[in-house]
Amino acid sequence: MQRLSPQDPNIAVWPQFCVGGPLTLTVQRQAFSLTGGDFQVCDQNGVAVVICQGQAMSIRGRKVVTDSQGKELCHIRSPAFSLLRTFIVEDPAGREIVQIVKRVGFGTSMKATFMNTTTSQPTSIYLHGEILGGSAILSLGKAGPPIAQLVSDFASARHIFTNAQTYAVNIAPGVDIALIAVLCITMDVTRRARRS
Description:
mainly beta, Porin, 12-stranded antiparallel β-barrel, 40% strand, globular, LOR_sf
Protein backbone atom coordinates (compact mmCIF):
# COMPACT_ATOMS: atom_id res chain seq x y z
CA MET A 1 0.00 0.00 0.00
CA GLN A 2 1.16 3.50 -0.74
CA ARG A 3 2.13 6.00 1.96
CA LEU A 4 -0.63 8.56 2.60
CA SER A 5 0.01 12.18 3.61
CA PRO A 6 -1.30 13.52 6.93
CA GLN A 7 -4.45 15.66 6.64
CA ASP A 8 -4.46 19.05 8.34
CA PRO A 9 -7.08 20.10 9.20
CA ASN A 10 -8.58 16.75 10.09
CA ILE A 11 -11.29 15.22 7.88
CA ALA A 12 -14.01 14.08 10.24
CA VAL A 13 -17.64 13.48 11.06
CA TRP A 14 -16.60 11.94 14.39
CA PRO A 15 -13.40 13.83 15.40
CA GLN A 16 -12.72 11.43 18.29
CA PHE A 17 -11.91 8.80 15.63
CA CYS A 18 -9.05 10.79 14.03
CA VAL A 19 -5.61 9.43 14.83
CA GLY A 20 -2.23 11.15 14.66
CA GLY A 21 -0.38 8.43 12.76
CA PRO A 22 -1.05 6.14 9.83
CA LEU A 23 -3.39 3.27 10.62
CA THR A 24 -4.42 0.07 8.91
CA LEU A 25 -7.87 -1.28 9.69
CA THR A 26 -9.40 -4.63 8.87
CA VAL A 27 -13.02 -4.44 7.74
CA GLN A 28 -14.55 -7.90 7.96
CA ARG A 29 -18.01 -8.99 6.90
CA GLN A 30 -19.23 -11.54 9.41
CA ALA A 31 -19.46 -14.99 7.83
CA PHE A 32 -22.51 -16.29 9.63
CA SER A 33 -24.97 -13.50 10.36
CA LEU A 34 -28.76 -13.63 10.44
CA THR A 35 -29.00 -10.31 8.58
CA GLY A 36 -26.12 -10.83 6.15
CA GLY A 37 -24.99 -7.28 6.89
CA ASP A 38 -22.85 -7.50 10.02
CA PHE A 39 -19.30 -6.10 9.97
CA GLN A 40 -16.49 -5.73 12.46
CA VAL A 41 -13.75 -3.13 11.98
CA CYS A 42 -10.53 -3.78 13.91
CA ASP A 43 -7.20 -1.99 14.27
CA GLN A 44 -3.89 -3.69 13.50
CA ASN A 45 -3.89 -5.25 17.00
CA GLY A 46 -7.24 -6.95 16.38
CA VAL A 47 -9.12 -4.60 18.72
CA ALA A 48 -12.65 -3.73 17.53
CA VAL A 49 -13.01 -0.03 16.68
CA VAL A 50 -16.41 0.02 14.95
CA ILE A 51 -19.16 -2.62 14.80
CA CYS A 52 -21.99 -2.65 12.26
CA GLN A 53 -25.12 -4.75 12.70
CA GLY A 54 -27.79 -5.18 10.07
CA GLN A 55 -31.38 -5.24 11.26
CA ALA A 56 -33.14 -8.52 10.48
CA MET A 57 -36.61 -7.08 9.82
CA SER A 58 -35.46 -4.05 7.80
CA ILE A 59 -36.76 -3.87 4.22
CA ARG A 60 -34.18 -1.27 3.16
CA GLY A 61 -31.17 -2.98 4.75
CA ARG A 62 -30.85 -0.57 7.69
CA LYS A 63 -27.63 -0.98 9.65
CA VAL A 64 -26.64 0.30 13.09
CA VAL A 65 -23.01 1.36 13.59
CA THR A 66 -21.57 1.53 17.11
CA ASP A 67 -18.19 2.13 18.67
CA SER A 68 -16.45 -0.71 20.52
CA GLN A 69 -18.31 0.18 23.75
CA GLY A 70 -21.72 -0.18 22.05
CA LYS A 71 -22.43 3.58 21.78
CA GLU A 72 -24.43 4.29 18.61
CA LEU A 73 -22.59 6.42 16.08
CA CYS A 74 -25.04 6.25 13.19
CA HIS A 75 -27.58 4.33 11.13
CA ILE A 76 -27.04 3.52 7.45
CA ARG A 77 -30.11 3.14 5.25
CA SER A 78 -31.06 3.14 1.58
CA PRO A 79 -33.91 5.47 0.58
CA ALA A 80 -36.97 3.77 -0.86
CA PHE A 81 -36.82 5.65 -4.16
CA SER A 82 -33.62 6.83 -5.85
CA LEU A 83 -32.33 6.56 -9.41
CA LEU A 84 -28.77 5.81 -8.30
CA ARG A 85 -27.73 3.53 -5.44
CA THR A 86 -27.79 5.91 -2.46
CA PHE A 87 -27.09 5.54 1.23
CA ILE A 88 -28.12 7.98 3.93
CA VAL A 89 -26.09 8.00 7.14
CA GLU A 90 -28.03 9.41 10.09
CA ASP A 91 -26.98 10.25 13.62
CA PRO A 92 -28.84 8.40 16.43
CA ALA A 93 -31.48 11.18 16.46
CA GLY A 94 -32.27 10.57 12.76
CA ARG A 95 -30.54 13.66 11.30
CA GLU A 96 -28.70 13.11 8.00
CA ILE A 97 -24.95 13.50 8.43
CA VAL A 98 -23.54 11.81 5.30
CA GLN A 99 -24.98 11.06 1.88
CA ILE A 100 -23.25 8.42 -0.26
CA VAL A 101 -24.15 8.04 -3.93
CA LYS A 102 -22.88 5.43 -6.39
CA ARG A 103 -21.77 7.28 -9.48
CA VAL A 104 -22.54 6.08 -13.00
CA GLY A 105 -19.64 4.45 -14.84
CA PHE A 106 -17.46 1.39 -15.00
CA GLY A 107 -16.07 -0.07 -11.83
CA THR A 108 -16.89 1.21 -8.39
CA SER A 109 -17.24 4.96 -8.08
CA MET A 110 -18.96 6.54 -5.11
CA LYS A 111 -19.18 10.03 -3.66
CA ALA A 112 -19.73 10.78 0.03
CA THR A 113 -20.78 14.29 1.03
CA PHE A 114 -20.80 15.51 4.65
CA MET A 115 -20.12 18.50 6.88
CA ASN A 116 -16.53 18.29 8.12
CA THR A 117 -16.87 18.85 11.88
CA THR A 118 -13.30 20.16 12.05
CA THR A 119 -13.77 22.98 9.53
CA SER A 120 -17.60 23.29 9.42
CA GLN A 121 -17.29 23.10 5.63
CA PRO A 122 -19.09 20.75 3.20
CA THR A 123 -16.64 18.04 2.16
CA SER A 124 -16.65 15.22 -0.40
CA ILE A 125 -14.73 11.97 -0.47
CA TYR A 126 -14.61 10.01 -3.73
CA LEU A 127 -14.04 6.28 -3.93
CA HIS A 128 -12.41 5.24 -7.21
CA GLY A 129 -11.45 1.77 -8.28
CA GLU A 130 -12.78 -1.66 -8.91
CA ILE A 131 -13.26 -3.56 -5.73
CA LEU A 132 -13.94 -6.68 -7.77
CA GLY A 133 -10.37 -6.19 -8.96
CA GLY A 134 -9.17 -6.01 -5.40
CA SER A 135 -8.45 -2.35 -4.62
CA ALA A 136 -9.83 1.16 -4.41
CA ILE A 137 -8.61 4.63 -3.50
CA LEU A 138 -10.54 7.15 -1.42
CA SER A 139 -9.60 10.73 -2.22
CA LEU A 140 -10.47 14.13 -0.81
CA GLY A 141 -12.50 15.72 -3.59
CA LYS A 142 -12.71 14.39 -7.11
CA ALA A 143 -9.04 14.89 -7.95
CA GLY A 144 -7.69 15.53 -4.47
CA PRO A 145 -5.05 13.67 -2.50
CA PRO A 146 -5.64 10.03 -1.54
CA ILE A 147 -6.68 9.69 2.11
CA ALA A 148 -7.27 5.94 2.25
CA GLN A 149 -6.46 2.86 0.21
CA LEU A 150 -8.49 -0.34 0.33
CA VAL A 151 -7.24 -3.80 -0.64
CA SER A 152 -9.51 -6.84 -0.70
CA ASP A 153 -8.49 -10.32 0.44
CA PHE A 154 -10.13 -12.52 -2.20
CA ALA A 155 -7.70 -15.40 -1.88
CA SER A 156 -8.42 -16.40 1.70
CA ALA A 157 -10.07 -19.74 2.39
CA ARG A 158 -12.52 -17.93 4.67
CA HIS A 159 -13.79 -15.86 1.72
CA ILE A 160 -13.95 -18.80 -0.66
CA PHE A 161 -15.94 -21.07 1.67
CA THR A 162 -18.12 -18.54 3.52
CA ASN A 163 -18.34 -15.55 1.11
CA ALA A 164 -17.27 -13.37 4.07
CA GLN A 165 -15.19 -10.55 2.67
CA THR A 166 -12.19 -8.98 4.42
CA TYR A 167 -10.60 -5.65 3.47
CA ALA A 168 -7.41 -4.00 4.67
CA VAL A 169 -7.76 -0.22 4.73
CA ASN A 170 -4.71 2.02 5.02
CA ILE A 171 -5.84 5.41 6.40
CA ALA A 172 -3.92 8.70 6.40
CA PRO A 173 -3.24 10.46 9.71
CA GLY A 174 -5.94 13.03 10.51
CA VAL A 175 -8.77 11.10 8.81
CA ASP A 176 -11.83 9.86 10.71
CA ILE A 177 -11.49 6.06 10.80
CA ALA A 178 -15.19 5.55 11.64
CA LEU A 179 -16.17 7.56 8.54
CA ILE A 180 -13.86 5.47 6.35
CA ALA A 181 -15.31 2.28 7.90
CA VAL A 182 -18.86 3.44 7.00
CA LEU A 183 -17.74 4.14 3.42
CA CYS A 184 -16.17 0.67 3.15
CA ILE A 185 -19.35 -0.96 4.45
CA THR A 186 -21.55 0.85 1.91
CA MET A 187 -19.08 -0.04 -0.85
CA ASP A 188 -19.31 -3.71 0.12
CA VAL A 189 -23.13 -3.57 0.10
CA THR A 190 -23.05 -1.93 -3.36
CA ARG A 191 -20.64 -4.55 -4.70
CA ARG A 192 -22.80 -7.39 -3.40
CA ALA A 193 -25.98 -5.86 -4.86
CA ARG A 194 -24.26 -5.60 -8.25
CA ARG A 195 -23.25 -9.28 -8.13
CA SER A 196 -26.74 -10.54 -7.25
